[in-house]
Amino acid sequence: MHKKIALGLVVSLCLSFTITNSFRDTIQEKLSNYLDNYPEKVYVQTDKPYYTLGDDVWFSTYLVNGVNHKKSNKSKVVYVELINEKDSIVSKKQFYVFNTNVAGDFKIDKNWKAGNYVLRAYTNYMRNQKADYFFQKQIPIWNVAETDSITHVTPQPNSENLTEVKEIELKEKPEIKFYPEGGYLINGLASKVGIKIKDKLNRDITLNGVIKDSDGNTITSFKSFQYGLGIITLIPNEGQSYHASVMINDVEYTYPLPKALPSGYNLNVVNNGNHLIVKVTTNAATGLKNSYLLAHQRGAMVYEKSETENTNSYLIKLNTNTLSDGVTHFTLFNNEGKPVCERLVYIDNPQDDIAVNLNLSKSAPGVRDHVSLKLGLADKDGNPVTGNLSMSITDVDAIGQSTKSGNIKTYMLLNSDLRGQINNPGYFFEKDGDPKRRYLLDLVMLTHGWRRFTWSEILNTSQETPKFKPEIGLYITGHTTSKRKKSNISASTRLTFMGTFPYQEKKRSDSNGVFKYGPFVFMDTMPTILEARINEFEKEEYKSNRMVDIHLLKNYSPSPKLDRKLSYVSNFDDGAKISNFLKKSKDIFEINETFLEEARLLDEVVITATKKSLEEQRTQELNEKAVYGFPTNRIDMKEYESMENLTFLELVSMVPGVNVANDSISIRGGGTPSLYMNNVPVQIDDVITMTGADIDFIDVLKGVDAVYFPNSGNGVIVIHQREGADFFAKNVKRKPGIIDFTSTGFYTAREFYAPNHIDPFGSTNKQDIRTTLHWEPKISLNTKSISSNISFYTSDIRSNYAIKIEGITDSGIPVFHLETFSVE
Hints:
single chain; mainly beta; Ferric Hydroxamate Uptake Protein, Chain A, domain 1; five-stranded mixed beta sheet; 14% helix
């Protein structure tokens, strides 16, 4: 009998050991897959937190690997949208990210309505997760042309001044929430309970109270600190319930604490800065044997422990000098593989500290003065660090800048991983190694419910191909159908980009008629021709070969729905600064209106002395487009503006030696010439409907002048399309088997403009008032250039100016720096 029992125990032990190892392998596999298919993060730095109608939004967009914050090797394409109060996208830009960050801008239309806009940024690959993970930043926009415009947008309520906590007079019952450490209160086990207090205006509240049991006995007292946070330690007893009691205006308000479980687990963590003390306890009958403790940072495992002993508690000391900055997740799984406790801890490793070295050529420049600065990064040992940065210089009196405000460091390391809103997050990073701030940040970890990484999603995620794939360029896709039968058919297709350097490619659509060209990387727009033939392309064609319809697909999917509650809110609660900003913006508006009126008067002056030089410049411009050399004959439509209504055939018939009969062309002494549009071969049917309004110039090449082109024995005619007058976008008669359109490429940001007060031709009598003194969207520090030299000019305003630098190193460490200087 005893032998049977012993054998049963051995089998049970082996089975438990096998289950534990199997579960550990599953966890390792899931984490490995998560790292291989890592999420992406996007952050956008803007030059200012708020704007006015007619203003420019200057920004720099950062795209990184969501786990290690290094350059993403998945997506190269990022979308940035500006969304109004009615949740309509008023402007959308598509960018190609060459190296971590890319410059961008929005022009705020004067006819838009003032309000709280949202700037949103994401990649197509990020759409596989919830839109919660998109970067969303709230941007107020005022209308200074209206006297009551300040009432259109009100400052956001934020935390009180964190350097001096002030009690807010409460007139109604506040909201109090309780967060037991690890997730649950367990009878007989000591547990810390985080407390979060807010009023109905979402303000953080400082408040005193007590905890009582169901018999009315006071167990302990509590007080909330900054951010409305507090903490208590409680050992629940069986048969008792607990509640918080607070007195407001001599009225008692009570709040029930979560009900304690009869048995369970507790996960306690004490953050001492350079090390963590982790204590795991349970009162469950099975104890902690075969439990599994795991710690990870954004999905990258940093610690694991499989408990093999039959114990009810254990203690771990974990040094933090090998961990990266950011949120660390501790999760305890029981012997059935279920997550039963979780605790978030913030790691601040001094090894990750990056110094920003900024040297100005003048400590106190004057108005309209030239200033240069040298910028570099260094690690804790003083070694140079490479990375990508962006920088804004703004008027402090008009633009509120504070080290407590959110920035790329707080977003990457806090807000983006927690997904919730943390007001004044920069407060936690102002003083390195400050125990008070570390303590408060630990309370934030204890009381924050939302997080990016959840085990339920990780463990239940299948390895199916993501619906939304990373984009590395632009594609031109669609399908071909029979013009007669209207069914999908395989056809020969030909794509032609009619740019400065023409490009042509052929491929056959598949059995379902589907074709796909790309990926392409080009900026702005490109005139494009897409052709299809039932058989191959031939010089002399039957009309039946063209009986194909071409159907294009949109370049990207519709934008996801916006959730405003998840918008990242900048701290702009300083009413005095906003009033000053609006005043200066009003002055700028009036100065610009006056300047424009003066410019209209100058437009009436006619200058004729440079006619010869303009003709020479025109000839040079056309010759640069004619990559084949000099033509035999040329028709420049600048000289024939009165003939813009003539067709291409009527125009080319004016050239000596060119004969036109019906819809055919011949050159005297030869046969039918080859036709080219912007140096790309075309057929007569493709250009026959063009008029002089579509054409910039026509070159005719004969004999040796045409040797640049193949098969040029009969001569060559090259049509150059007029810029800005897109022939392919016009409502012309379409020929079967061809469509023409303008392909939209990636947006290229405008260059930030500021007056050059040294150059007498670049300077004017116009008064120079700017709230943004300078904007530098992309500063690259690499091994060849470990520092960057930047120059700018001060304006006419004597004020204090803030230099705000944000960015990320090549090793994935976010960087933020803020300092000021005075213009005297």
